[in-house]
Amino acid sequence: MRFTHLNLNPALVKAIKDLGFVRPTPIQAEAIPPGLQGRDLIACAQTGSGKTAAFLLPIINRLIDRPRRTVKALV
């Protein structure tokens, strides 16, 4: 799977690609789709596995798609 298959905003996918990432890690592939649906996430994975991006990419995607001055996420 590639980041392009995760339904992320094209600008976000480009930024991810520009940073040198092409494929999501297993935790990212599992956590990003429900995060994009606005569902709560609890995840456990090894250090360095990409958990931070798994949580933040759906949040950043929402900020890009709906730039309003309201609360979008709680961490």
As a percent range, the share of helical residues equals 40-55%
As a whole number of angstroms, the C-alpha radius of gyration is 12 Å
Got a strand count? 0
- The figure for the number of domains is 1
Query: Given the helix and strand composition, which structural class is it?
Result: mainly alpha
Biggest sheet details: none
What does this molecule look like?
This protein is an all-alpha fold. It contains three helices and no strands. The longest helix is centred in the last third of the chain and has 15 residues. The mean pLDDT is 90.
What characteristics describe this protein?
3 helices; mainly alpha; 75 residues
Concise summary:
This protein is an all-alpha fold. 47% of the residues lie in helices and 0% in strands.
Topology readout:
Blueprint: H1 10-18, H2 26-36, H3 51-65
